[in-house]
Amino acid sequence: MDRAALGGSGRDMTGEWRARAASTAPADRERAEAGVREAYRRAGLPEPERVVWAGSPRAGVALVRALEDKGPSVREAVRSAPWSRERAWLYGELGAAGWAAHWAATGGRLWELTQALVDRIRAGVLAECDGDPEVRLILLDAVLGQHDAAWLAAFSGREGPLKGLAEVCRSAGWWWPFEKVAVVCERPSALHRDEAGRLDRGDGPALAFPDGFALYAWRGMPVQASFVEELRTLSPERIRSEENAELRRVMLEFYGYDRYLADSGARPLGSDETGTLWRIDLVGDEPVVMVEVVNSTPEPDGSHNVYWLRVPPTTRTAREGVAWTFGLEATEYIPLRQT
Predict the structure, then answer these.
(1) Quick one: CA dihedral 222, 226, 230, 232, positive or negative?
(2) What domain range includes position 240?
């Protein structure tokens, strides 16, 4: 296969692998099990005597710990060795610069999504197990199924040697290969992210599995389920009383700075032709300073939209704050026309 064909096939397949990485459809168990057996055969190993299923990585870890006659892990032969061979082959074909460009056009485009989810799932399982060192090692020994999509996107032009691993990626979640048994997990049943790709949901789990294992987050920040429940009944008094500065910022974002200003009876620091400057003082944290800007161009119904601009705490005037959003000093900001 020439270099052009290899690079082109990788780029064409990236969209498919992105969809697999984010899939919340139920696992295709028949296809996944066929992929597991194919991976064993391609590694030169006998097929596992049985494949057992778990509802989530948390349940998968529990199964791995409970199974007594599973034999040793064969992850090295099934996943690590063929992975290493394919990467070495690609690197040899493309060279250092070519490999870097190929990775950037394929797997690199998915890496932030997949690795962020992997890290959060591991952290969530560990938290429920009080950081048990054995659990940590089991998690690190998992083959990542759909979350191996970034690497498989890079290897798409050479999928043959990795056919079994690719089939599991297309069909299921994490899995553990042992000599006699393979433990395979369901995919998540729900995945919610913000525009930046971070886990984010204010009315339930941001990532959930069919067996009830779930992770909660707001704009990527891990939070407890009880905290998400409380977001629905927030008040300015409750926000002010929160001692954790990070959680208080989450509360303010969810509640809305403009709503908080109105409901807390805040007074403006001053107004000028650019807008109105507001300040929210927070105990143990820097103040929140915002400029209220009214769009001078009316909407079709004659109303004027209001926008809120977060500016540095040291801002002294609305004009200075608006200028800062354009990377200018207040004396340099001379708009020809307000919009």
Answers:
(1) positive
(2) 236-332
